[in-house]
Each structure stands twice: as C-alpha cells, then as structure tokens.
Amino acid sequence: MKGFLTLKNYKPEAIQNIINTAISFKNNDKVTVFSNKKMVTLFFENSTRTHISFQMAMLKLGITPVDVNISTSSVNKGESLYDTVKTLESIGFDGVVIRHSQNEYYKELENINIPIFNAGDGTSDHPTQTMLDLMTIYEEFGRFEGLKVCIVGDIRHSRVAHGNAEIMKRLGMEVYIAGPENFLDDTAPVMDIDEAIKTCDVINLLRVQFERHSDTQELNDKVYHEKYGMTETRAKNMKKGSIIIHPAPINRGIEIADSVVEGENSRIFAQMTNGVYIRMAVISMVLEGKL
Ligand code: CP
C-alpha cells in the first residue's frame, strides 16, 4: 500500500530525510508543483490543525484539495470505509488523507491503489504530528541522540504519546512519562513531574481527555493543573534551554497555564507552522516515489 501510514518501519535516516525536506520547503529552498493533482481529505473525527494544514500543504504544492463532509456523506447510509475510499479512487483523486477512530484502519484498505496519508488512527499513531514534533525538536537542538523527553498527561488514550515515544526511543532519546496513575500505561518509565521539569530537554504535554475517563471525578481541572500541569512556577523551574511542545488543542489553565502557552519556552505555535512543511514533505515525497 502506498502512502504515509506509520513511522514504525522508518529508519532514522528516512526520518531525517523527511525533516530535511520540510526544512527546505520552510526556507523556500525547494519548490515543487504538482499542478494536475487532486487530493481529498476524509476526517471521521474532529480536527482543526491536521485537517487544515494538510489542505494548506496541498495548496502550497499546487495540488487541488477537496474535502468530504462525513456528516452529509453516504457514510451515514452505512457505506464502509473501504467502499468510500474506493469511490474516491474511482472518481480520480491522486491521494486521500484519513483520520479515523479505529486503530490501523488502513489495514482494511490494502486493495486501494492511491496513496493514503494517515492523519491519526484511534489511539495508535499520528505520524505527521510525530514528524512535526521531531522537526521542532531538531530545529531547537540540532540532534535527537541523548535528549531527555517527558510526555505528560493522558498517555493511555493518546495516539501522539504512543507514536512519539516509539520513534523518539529509536532516535536515541531518553523517554519518560508523567501524569495521574490511571492516565499512564507501559509506554515508558514513569518520572515525577517536578523531576522532569528540572532535568528534561523537552516537556511534551498532552491534552487531558476528561471525556474518556469515568474514574476522574476527584481529579478536576484545578487539581490536575496543580499536580501535573505546566504551572507558571514549573515553567520558571524548567531546565535551561528546554522547551514545551503540545499537539493542541490546548486546555488553557489545565495542562498548561494561560500565560505559559506563548511564553519563551513554548514552541506550540511553531509546531503548527512546521506541520504545514512536514505535510508538504510527506505528500511530495510520496507522490515522487521517494517514500
Ligand atoms: N494536533 C492535532 O492533531 O490537532 P487536531 O485534532 O486539531 O488536528
């Protein structure tokens, strides 16, 4: 199957190649135009950043983007994912970007002949988010080997945490997790949040998904913020030169203090800018047969 589905089989050199291509696009060193190509976005779950930055990446590459509105589509008449994507292929699109709640939904699409770009699958993976996180870290430190990262928050329900931890470890980073016990899993060793603040190069905050927890009545917003959030005090105590990343959307005042969101250590909006260039890189590399 063609496309960009998961980073699990990508070697560090291939990851670096994608980052270098994205940086070339960002610096205007690389101009690639696919003027006769048309691609389609198919989002079964809500999204602002991934959905719109894939469309922006297509526009910058000269590709015409078309969106399927799931709520008015024949998905609501029971049409399967496979038949929906086969329909888009038959109509003549050159690629499809999909976000779906099912882990590894793309395994159902093995007979699809156009490239598929994974915009997030269940709690499994979000490869372009991982790539834009890595690009942001690389721009800051110029390397991955030896950096310490702590992923903080709702690890158990997070495709970003699972995708990031796996590839960060393979790139030589030391990965830890922090958060309430019932939010954690065996993704990486647990570290105390205040220890992480003092010693880690990257604090990778996650959105708290209270809607997914029935067992958190006692853990309200204020308690979470004080126990595990990036408070103003914690931001001041961060290791010199360290940065905060967050995939967003952000719960201001819960996982991060309002004043810290755009503070000097935060790279949250830089990540969103990088997301466009990463998506330009993966789309162009797939269409050129380089991925
Ligand atoms: N980071 C991220 O995936 O955001 P969206 O859900 O808005 O796409």
Q: Write the element-wise H/E pattern from the N-terminal end onward.
A: EHEHEHEEHEHEHEHHEHH
Global geometry: globular
Q: Number of folding domains?
A: 2
Total count of strands:
9
What is the averaged pLDDT score? Answer: 95
Q: What kind of sheet is the major sheet?
A: 5 strands, parallel
Describe, in plain words, how this protein is organized in 3D:
This protein is of the alpha/beta class and 291 residues long. The chain has two domains: 139 residues, Rossmann fold (3-Layer(aba) Sandwich); 145 residues, Aspartate/ornithine carbamoyltransferase (Rossmann fold). Helix content is 37%, strand content 14%. The strands form two sheets. The protein has a five-stranded parallel beta sheet, sandwiched between helices. It is globular and about 55 Å long. The protein binds phosphoric acid mono(formamide)ester. The site of phosphoric acid mono(formamide)ester (CP) has 10 residues, from helix 2. The site of phosphoric acid mono(formamide)ester has 10 residues, from helix 2.
Topology summary:
Layout: E1 3-4, H1 12-26, E2 38-43, H2 49-60, E3 64-68, H3 81-91, E4 95-100, E5 116-121, H4 127-141, E6 148-152, H5 159-170, E7 174-178, H6 193-199, E8 202-205, H7 221-228, H8 232-236, E9 243-245, H9 258-261, H10 268-287
Parallel strand pairs: 1-5, 2-3, 2-4, 4-5, 6-7, 6-8, 8-9
The structure holds phosphoric acid mono(formamide)ester.
Descriptive labels:
291 residues; alpha/beta; Rossmann fold; 5-stranded parallel beta sheet; 4-stranded parallel beta sheet; 10 helices; 9 strands; 14% strand; binds phosphoric acid mono(formamide)ester
